[in-house]
Structure formats: C-alpha cells, structure tokens
Amino acid sequence: MKNKDKLLYVSAAVLAAGSVAGVKTTNVKAAEVKQANVNANSKLDLNKQATAQDKTAQSQIKQDTATVQKTQDQVKQDQAAKTQAETAKTEAQNTLPAKQESVNTAQTKLDQAKNDLTQTQNKDLHAQYDTTAENAVHTAQEAEKRLDQKVNNLSGQVQDAQNKQTDLLGQRTSAESEIKTNTETLNNVNEQLNKAQAEAIQAQKHFDNVAKDYAPIQTEYNAKKSNAEKAASDLKQNETDLAQSQKQLTDLQTKNDNLAKTVNDTQSQLDNTNKDLANAKNDVSQSQAKLNDVTKQSNDVNGKLASAIAKRDQAKSALDSQSENQTKIVITPEFNKAFHKWNDSHDPNYVQWTPEKNAEMVKELGALSKHEREMNHFEHNAKDKEQKIDMMHLTYEQRLEANKFGINLVNQIRTQMGKKPVKLTVGSLKYANDVAKYYEADHPADDFANGNVDGSHPGHDTNAINKALVENGVEPDMGGEAGFYSTYYDSDLDGRFGSFSIENMDDLKHEIYNAVTRWMFNYEQGEWLHASIVVSMNLWDNTNYKDHNAEDPTYFGFAIMANAPHEELGAISGDLMIGLETIVDNTIPGNPLSHPIDYNKFNVKDVIPTDTDNSQAGQVYAAAQNEVNVLQDQKNSLDGQIKSLNDHLAQSQNRVNDLTKTINDLSAKLANAKSEQGNVQSQIGQVSKHVDELKAAQPALGQARDNTAKALADYEQIHATVLNDYNNAKSQLEQANNKLQYATKAKNETEKVLNQNKAKLANINQELAAVKAQLADLTTKLSDAKSSQTSAKANLEKAQADYDNYVNTHKDLIDNIAKSDKELADKEEAVRVAQSDYDKASQEYEAAKKEADKLANKVKDLDQSIAKSQETIKSLTNRIASNTQIIENNKQVHAQAAKLAARKAFDAQINKALDNVVYGTKTISQHTAKAATIKSAVSTKNTKHALPQTGANDKLSLFAALAGLSLSSIGLGSLVSDKKRRRN
C-alpha cells in the first residue's frame, strides 16, 4: 500500500473512531492557530537572519584575521627596527662627546693659525722696493712679444697670399687648356652635323620617290595585313582563355576537395571540443564545491587562530610583566619552525640531515640565525655593575647568581620552542662547579679548549667532566657539554697594556649571554649542535622512551672557569670558559640508553628557584605559542589549498572560456567552409561549360588564321618589289634622322661646356688680380713690422740692463722680501688647513647629532606605530571574538529552524491527506452542517454513515474531539491553521 493510501486509511479510521466514541467536538480558536503559525514563521525568519549574520560574521572574521596577521607581522618588523634604531642611536650618541672634543681642538688650532698669520702680515717690506726698473722690463717684454706676434702673423698672411696666387695661376692654365680642347671638339661636331643634314635631305627625297609607287597598293595591303593579324590574335586569345579556364577548373576542383576535408576536420574538432567543454565545466563545478568546503574550513581555522593569537598575546604580556627589567631572548616563529625541521625527529616536517643536505640547512638556518642574533641584545644592569668580582676567586653566591641568570636565558628559549624548562638544583649546581674546578686543575696555564691534558678530545676536557660525574653519582660519559671560550684578561708580554674585560657581575652575565646566543644562532660556522644541547633535541633528545609526549627530567648548570694570566701565543692571557653542563635522567626499565643516577650524591630534591620558576607564565605562553603555530600551519596549508584551488578554478574557467570561443570559432569556420564549398561547386559548373565552348570555337579560329595568312602572303608575292623598296627607303630615312638628332645634341652640349669654361676663366683672372693687390699690401706691412721689431729688441736689452743693475745694488732687500713672502704663504696654508679641519670636524659632529636625533625620532615613531598596531590587534581580536560568539549563538537558531522544517514536512503529508476529504452540499437539518465522505480509497455512497458537523466552521473540531488527541503534540499545529484558512 502506498504511503498516501496509508494516510487516507488513518484519516478514515480517525473519523470512524470519532463516530463510535461520540466524543464531543472541541473547537480550536482560529486566533490560537494563527498565532502558532506566526510564531513558527517568525522562527524561520530568525533563521534566515541568523544565516545572513553567520555569513557576514565569517566574512568579517576572515578579513579581521588577515588584518591581525598582517598587523602582527608589522609589529614584529617595527620591534626589530626599533631595536636596531635604539642600538644605532646609542652608538651615535656615544660618538658625540669625542666629535665635540674634535671640534673644540680644531677651533683652537684655527684661532692660533689666524693669529700667527696676522702677525706675519704686519711685516711689510714691499714698500721699500722700487718697481720702476722691473716694470720697464715687463713693458719692453710685452712690446717685443706683441711685435713678434705681429711679424709672425703678417709673415703667415704673405705666405697664404703667395700660395693662393700660385694655385690660381695653375687653375688659369688648366681652364685655358680646357677651352682650347672644347673649341676643337665643337669644330668637329659642326662638321658631323653638316654631313648628317645632307644625308637626311637625300634620304627624304628617295623615300618620297618610292612612296609614289607604294601609294596605289597601300590600302588593300593594310587591310589584308590587319585581317591576318586579327585572325592570329583571335586564335591565340582563344588558346590562352582555354588554358586559363582549364587551370581555373583544376584549381576549383582542388579547392573543393580541400573544403570537403576542412568541413570533415572542423566537424570532428567541434565534436571533440564540445566533449572537452563538458569535462571542463564539470571540473569547474567540482573545484568550486571543493573550494567552498576548504574556504569554510579556513574560516573556522581563522577564527580559532585569532582567538589563539589573542590568548598568546595575553600570555606574552603576562610573561613580559614578570620579567620587565630582565634580559630577554626572543625566538621568532620562523626560526622555531626551521630549527624543529632540522633538529627535532618528532616534528612532522623533520628532515634527516645528510652531507648532501647540509648546504640547504646552512642557508635556511643561517639567514634566520643572523636575524635572531641582530634582533636580541643584552640589557646592562647598573646594580650588577656595582658588584665587583674576581674571576680567579668567584664565591659560591656569585656562581649561584650567574647560574640563575644563565638557566633563566635557557628556559626562555626552551619555553618558546615548546620544551619544558630545565631545573637548577643543588646537585646540578655542585656538578657544574666541580667540572669548573677540575678544568682549572688540568689547565692552569693553557687554553681550556685544548681538551684533555694528553691532548685528546680537543675542545672538551672529558677527564675533568667524567671525574665530576662519578663524584656526583652519575656514570662516566653520561653528561653533555656546550662550551664557550674567551679571555677575561689580555696584555702584551711587558704587561704595559693589560686590561680586564670582566670586572663585575654585569660583565660576567654579558659573557654568559654571548655564550647562549652564540650557541643558539651560530650562523658564522653553520653549526647548531650546541643549540640542540640547549633545547634537548637531536643527539641530546630528552623525549621519554615510552611516552613521546613527555620529557625525561633534565638538569642544567653553568660551569664558569678561569685560570691565572699566563704567556700564550706571544701575549699574556687569562683564559675563560663557560660550559653548559647537562644531565638527563632517563632511568626507565627497557630503555637501552638509560643510566642510573645515585641521588644520594646528586641532589635533585632541592630545586633552586630562578627568576621564572615562581610563575607558570612561561609555560602558558609556550602552550599558547604552540597552539598558534599549529593553527598557523593549518591556516598556511588551507591558504595554499585555497590559492591552488583558485588558481585551478581560474585556469579551468579560462579553459571553459577558451573552449567556448573555440567552439564559436569552429562553428563559424564550419559554416563558412560549407557556404564556400557551395559557391565553389557552382563555379565549377560555370567554368566547365566555358571550357567546352572554347574547345568548340578552336577549329574555326584556326581555319580563319590560315586563310588570312595565305591571302596576305599571295599579295606580298605579287607586289614584292614595291614593298621591298618602300621598306628599305623608310628604314634609311629613319637612320638619317636619328643621326641628325644625335649630331645636333652633341653640338649643344659642347657649346654649353665651352661657355662654362670661359666663365670659369674670367672668374679666375678676376680673383688673381685681387690676390696680387693683397700680396703687395701685406709685403709693405711686414717690412714696417720688422723695423719696429728691431727697435723693440733694443729697448728690452736696455731695460733689462737697468733692472739687473738695480737687483745687484739691492740684493739684501730682495732676499728679505722673498723670505717674508714664503713665511706668509706658510701661515696662509696653515690657516687653510686648520679651517678645513675645523669644517670637517663641525660637519661630522653635526651629522652625528642629526643622525642621533633622526634615530631618536624613528624610535619614537616606531613606539607610536607599535602602540597603534597593538590597539588595532586588540580591537580586531575583540571583534573576532564577538563575531565568533554570534556564530556560536546562532547554532541554536539553526537547530530550532531544522526542527520546524521537519515539522513542516510532516504537515505537508497531512495536507495531502486532507485534500482527499470532500464535503456534500445536502442540507441535513436547520443547521448549516454538511456531510463528509472519503474519496475512492474508502469511498461510500451511503450518506447514512456520514458524520454530522456541528456548524459551518470547518472539520477542525472533528479531529480535536478524537480520544483527546492533541494536534500540536503530533506536529499538526501549522497544518490546522493552513487548512482552516483555506476551507472556511
């Protein structure tokens, strides 16, 4: 039985049960039903609003998350830039006192040089020197120089004029020779012209006589000749047309074959392209669905990431507030991720090191380590500077304080890199101090890096380490060590320039800081095994043997050792070594690498608190950072998938577009090919017909050519003498006229050249006369100049003699003046040098001051930028949290809407059942009741079984009366109200 039929039988059963029970009908108020429907629709409207809110919130979360990430990246950049700027500012400010001192020194030297110059300038001896004789020499020398130049100039001009005159005489001779040649040529041309004129006259007379005999046959001969030529031309034209038409027909047939192939090929391409288009559209649909799914995942991850970042930042603030005045080592996520990749075998992205991969590792970790080293810096402490220390006699309290500082740095790093903090205990401190003691005993006067006393194990004194291990209850070779070597005292062999680099606790902590950062960020040597010791990874992995999510107890201590200053490598040195001594308690049954520890000797119960051990902020921050890293990796992966899918979707859509365009192009090409094929086939019919016509005309045209040719030949044979005489005379006349034209042209050209040469000769004669006049004038001027030159030389000799006589009689005065001039020049040079030094020092000071001010402003601007970015992050994080809460709250609305949708589906089935109930129109009584019947499934035409109705409202009361059945309890509330509105 079908579902609908089952429902109809149920309806009939309900009606029958109502009849038997005789239960009084209960009227349901239409207002209550209407209100129930309004409430349901209101909830559905709320669901639509919630869906729109979800979409808006998700979009805003995605946008805000991206902005938060971008802003956080900017904060990191600004903080790194601020650190660099502060360092540079400090360096710049530190140079200012020295540069100011340089300015003051230069000013003093400049003032002294100016004073010396003033005193020297007061000694003026030039007033005692008579310059008359010296000036007379200068005047005579200038006069001689001017006259020498004038004579040289005039001599040159005379030579130029003479050269020009010689050149013009040569040109005149050449022109006269050319005129003579032209005249002789003209005479010969005239003779040839006269002869040609006579021959032309004679040929014309002979042609006129012959033409008299040719005139009677000319008309008939020309007609026969024209007919023969026309017949031959017609035949040739027909043959040409036939060949061209046949070629055209062959070309058209070839073209038709090609078009048929084009139609077939294009149709095949079109079919294949349509298949490709269907596949491409299917790929677009699948890719879009996958993109929607990945985008939804990305939105969820972005929301979680924003919350995790906010949580991480709060933990970071708490961590920073507890160690506000302490030196910090910050590990960036980029370095953290790369370090785990190359050193943590438990990391999902772990890469096993091989010699072939070393270059790749060094390149990746090297660049990041350099950045980490530059970003972190030691914070000096004024109180520590007041605490003086003696490296050769460190007290237990000083070693304890240094260890607390060092372990604090180590635990900062470990916490940020997802490792548990190590413990500094009474036992690990004693062990580290014992290592230092035995190192110092083995190396009283040599470098600690020399290793064992016998020279083995350079870099680490394993004998000293093992001795300390055994003494503290640990098996030999079970301790790890990272070493850092330096000096605390340096001097030359005489001890004149000795200096201590570690004099107080601040200096020692600075060296410990340098050791830790050098171990962690050793980009210079491309080595991170020491860093692996610090964070218990790689060969020093402290992951639990059974539970890989747990770490074995790990104990660290800093061994600080120094020996007395001694001679080493040509100088006096006091060696320093800082060793990070490590012990891991992996005593677990079944662990092949476990080594028992005697805790009676190695005290781990008494834990020494460090600066961060009193708070769980570091661990909270580490957990939050790890969560950010995980979510960030997920985000990056999803972003990569989204980009890949978007790229693929764009490529697929482009392919759809390209294929659609290809289909359009192929369709157009196919239509054009078919149309053109029809035109070609039509042309083939026309050309074939024309070929047949040309072939048919060919015999007649050949006969016409033969007949006209024979008639012309017969006529020419009859009048052969007259025709031959006429043609010969005509040819002779044409030759004579051509010869006359050539002779006339030659005469004209020869006369033209002759006239040009005559004009050229006239110009040469005119120019030659002018040169002769110029040469005479220049010769006269040159003679006068040479006379003046002789007088000037005599005057110079006299003036020079007078000057020599003055110099001889005033030699002492001249020597004194020379000495005074040299002294003055030296003083002026000293002032110039001093002024230059002062200007340079002032410029350097101003530049340094300007740079320091610029850096101070940059630090201020970066502080403002960081504060603004942090405020933006806080605001956006709050908005992300608010939108996330909106989405979470709307889940209840969606759940209620789902229930209503299910109820409406059930209502729809009931509506279908009620549509099968019909009402009769027969009046039963004075009431307005109607009889109810059931359609064909339970139909009856016997109206005595019909159920009476209590009124004209509807059948609602019937169902309400059945066995106390509640419509709302079976999800029929909305059904009732809908039917009531439609049936009333």
Q: How many strands?
A: 7
The chain-level mean pLDDT equals 83
Report strand %: under 5%
Q: What does the overall shape look like?
A: flat
Order of helices and strands: HHHHHHHHHEEHHEEEHHHEEHH
Largest sheet: 5 strands, antiparallel
Enumerate how many helices there are, as a single number.
16
Furnish the topology, listing elements before pairings.
Blueprint: H1 3-21, H2 30-121, H3 132-322, H4 333-343, H5 358-375, H6 382-386, H7 396-416, H8 426-442, H9 462-471, E1 480-491, E2 499-500, H10 505-520, H11 529-535, E3 554-562, E4 566-568, E5 571-584, H12 617-718, H13 720-809, H14 811-914, E6 917-919, E7 932-934, H15 956-960, H16 973-983
Antiparallel strand pairs: 1-2, 1-5, 3-5, 4-5, 6-7
Helix pairs in contact: 1-14, 2-3, 2-14, 2-16, 3-12, 3-13, 3-14, 4-5, 7-10, 8-9, 14-16
Protein model, in words:
This protein is mostly helical. It is built from 16 helices and 7 strands. The strands form 2 sheets. Strands 1, 2, 3, 4 and 5 form a 5-stranded antiparallel beta sheet that branches. It has a two-stranded antiparallel sheet with strand order 6-7. A hairpin with a 7-residue loop joins β1 (480-491) and β2 (499-500). The longest helix is centred in the first third of the chain and has 191 residues, at 132-322. The two termini are 32 Å apart. The relative contact order is 0.15. The model is unreliable at 1-29 and 917-984 (pLDDT under 50).
